[in-house]
Inverse folding.
């Protein structure tokens, strides 16, 4: 691409880069707006809403959030579900994915087919609800973890990654007297850290963001994770949402704009913190399996 | 080949079942590893499929599936004769068509643009930013939209007012539901959607571009004649998957946007199943709706896959 830098080509590059920069900025501005507003003073906001830069900063909204037990508890619930759920999901996914790598395993094809079929067809909401209820999981945190513990797509990515490791490693480990569990934990997993980091991120984000399972399976408002509470505070308090049953009692009157913004920031923060560490892995990791399952 | 291997293959030939047992015993740890996952799929995926039978019953939770009365196609008959159902079915299809028309091409265009960037640092910078929204929950995406669009004090409406326009009640107007929905989908997913296309483009032989330049092709012609044809099969695979999800639109997203004012255009099959089933307790009827949805989805994947194969593409299976 070195030669042939004529005028048309340079113009193309300039316009292209400009457009991409604008798109990136446009996608990011709403987040910036929210963060900045959360630090503004209420007075300044009522005087004149602004786009990005407040003239005075205030931590009032955050002080308020951390002083309410409701939000604090909801954050704790979300952290617990995310950590516990990710651990359970990773163990189940890694074990099954590795178990399915051996080519001479009888029944392997049938099990693979069975997994793929669940991506095309499912029993749907009500039958799943009935199963979860029959297992006595209603109002238990396990209801937010077990029914979605394995994601078929993540499982397939993981399996492809394991399959692409050189066979020789396993054979030599076997000769050294390792059994299959030993091979998995001492050789395969240490070599698969990029894939494991990626899939863990995917699971963690799903658990952190999950809102649907909570409204389905948790009747007890004290157990709500942060996403459900956020919906109460921002969406329901605007009087717009589909149903208004079970408003949190801490929020009888619609909260100030700055408080809404601060809750949004607090519930997004963990992902924004984890993201840069894992970003270097996921583009690569996500592709291993997605091109051809 | 040593003698024991010969013996082994002789055994394999004469007695396949004992060698099957041998293989299973040899792989016992592998089966043990698969077992927990297998139990998961059976309990949480396959038992609910069996649970679909309640759409042929008048299911009573306290009687259970085995004790409830069988009523044949009653619920399906109700479904097809209910005018409300057809409105909801139409809403679902409209959302799907908008998705394909306005969302589907965006990641392709973005990926082509990114692919043309030669400065690796700038490319990574843009990618980093546009991937982020994918990791943000729908609750947060919708919340941010709400605080920006709300009538009093929302940033967008204040801007409109400052510029001398009328304020617009975006959140409560049926006519703003679709634009809002699509913009949010693009905001959240378009960046992430580029990954797979960029990977496909990375596999294109640079010699092709070289040759095209020799022939005097400009940048647009190179994109049109080399980049796009090279990712055609990826585009088709993703289109098939998208079509398969025709009725599987994001429940959470629509549910969060739904309100009493826009229900006529915003209620879709998933939200309808949720309200009639869990909120109103019509388990059998809403299961019938869900069954219909899953079935149509499956049929559409198979149909589009067959079409893709007819046009000489690989398809997804």
């Amino acid at each position: 691409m070195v030669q042939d830098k004529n005028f048309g080509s340079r113009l193309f590059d300039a316009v292209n880069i400009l457009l991409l920069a604008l798109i990136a900025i446009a996608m990011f501005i709403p987040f910036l707006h929210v963060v900045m507003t959360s630090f503004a003073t209420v007075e300044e906001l009522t005087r004149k809403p602004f786009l990005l830069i407040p003239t005075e900063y205030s931590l009032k909204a955050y002080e308020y959030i951390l002083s309410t037990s409701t939000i604090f508890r909801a954050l704790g619930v979300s952290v617990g579900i995310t950590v516990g759920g990710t651990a359970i999901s990773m163990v189940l996914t890694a074990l099954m994915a590795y178990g399915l790598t051996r080519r001479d395993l009888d029944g392997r094809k049938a099990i693979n087919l069975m997994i793929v079929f669940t991506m095309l067809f499912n029993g749907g909401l009500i039958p799943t609800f009935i199963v979860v209820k029959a297992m006595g999981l209603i109002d238990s945190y396990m209801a937010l973890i077990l029914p979605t513990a394995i994601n078929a797509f993540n499982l397939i990515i993981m399996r492809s990654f394991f399959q692409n490791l050189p066979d020789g490693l396993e054979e030599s480990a076997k000769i050294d007297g390792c059994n299959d569990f030993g091979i998995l934990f001492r050789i395969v997993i240490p070599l698969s850290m990029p894939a494991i980091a990626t899939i863990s991120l995917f699971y963690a984000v799903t658990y952190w963001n999950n809102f649907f399972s909570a409204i389905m399976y948790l009747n007890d408002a004290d157990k709500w994770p942060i996403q459900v509470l956020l919906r109460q505070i921002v969406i329901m308090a605007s009087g717009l949402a589909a149903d208004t049953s079970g408003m949190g009692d801490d929020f009888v009157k619609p909260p100030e704009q700055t408080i809404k913004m601060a809750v949004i920031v607090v519930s997004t923060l963990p992902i924004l913190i984890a993201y840069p560490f894992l970003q270097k892995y996921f583009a690569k990791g996500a592709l291993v399996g997605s091109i051809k399952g | 080949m040593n003698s024991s291997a010969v013996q082994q293959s002789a055994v394999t030939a004469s007695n396949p079942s004992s060698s099957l047992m041998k293989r299973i015993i040899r792989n016992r740890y592998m089966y043990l590893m698969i077992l927990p996952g297998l139990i998961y799929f059976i309990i949480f995926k396959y038992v609910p499929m069996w649970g679909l039978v309640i759409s042929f019953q008048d299911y009573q939770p306290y009687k259970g599936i085995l004790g409830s009365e069988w009523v044949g196609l009653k619920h399906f008959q109700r479904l097809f004769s209910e005018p409300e159902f057809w409105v909801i079915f139409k809403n679902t299809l409209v959302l799907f068509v908008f998705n394909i028309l306005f969302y589907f091409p965006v990641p392709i265009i973005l990926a082509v643009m990114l692919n043309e960037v030669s400065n690796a640092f700038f490319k990574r910078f843009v990618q980093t930013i546009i991937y982020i929204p994918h990791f943000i929950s729908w609750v947060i995406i919708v919340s941010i939209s709400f605080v920006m669009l709300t009538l009093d004090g929302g940033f967008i409406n204040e801007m409109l007012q400052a510029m001398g326009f009328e304020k617009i009640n975006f959140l409560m107007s049926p006519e703003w539901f679709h634009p809002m929905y699509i913009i949010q989908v693009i905001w959240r997913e378009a960046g992430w959607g580029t990954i797979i296309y960029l990977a496909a483009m990375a596999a294109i032989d640079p010699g092709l571009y070289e040759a095209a330049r020799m022939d005097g092709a400009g940048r647009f012609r190179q994109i049109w004649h080399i980049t796009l044809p090279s990712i055609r099969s990826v585009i088709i695979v993703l289109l098939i998957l998208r079509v398969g999800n025709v009725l599987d639109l994001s429940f959470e997203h629509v549910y969060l946007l739904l309100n009493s004012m826009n229900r006529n255009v915003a209620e879709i099959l998933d939200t309808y199943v949720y309200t009639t089933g869990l909120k109103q307790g019509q388990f059998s009827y809403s299961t019938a709706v869900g069954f219909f949805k899953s079935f149509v989805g499956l049929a559409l994947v198979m149909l589009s896959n067959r079409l893709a194969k007819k046009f000489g593409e690989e398809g997804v299976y």
Confidence is low (pLDDT under 50) at residues 241-253, 288-293 of chain A. Chain A has 13 helices and no strands.
